[in-house]
Amino acid sequence: MTSTELSAQDARHVPLTDADKLAQDAATAAQVRRLANHPDVVALRVEKVRTQVDAVIWLGIFLGLAFTMVNVQQFAAAGAPVWSLGWFAGWLLDPMVSLVLVAVLRAEQITARYQVSTGVWAHRTKWFAFLATYVMNTWESWTRFDVAGVALHSVPPVLVFLAAETAPVLRDKLTEAVLAAAGHAHAGIRTPDVERHEPASPAEPAELPADEELADAKPVREPRKPARKASKAKAKPAARKLLADYVADARAAWTPGTEITPAWVRSITDCARGTSSNVATALAAELATDDTNPADVKDAA
Question: Whole-prediction pTM value?
Answer without folding.
Answer: 0.48
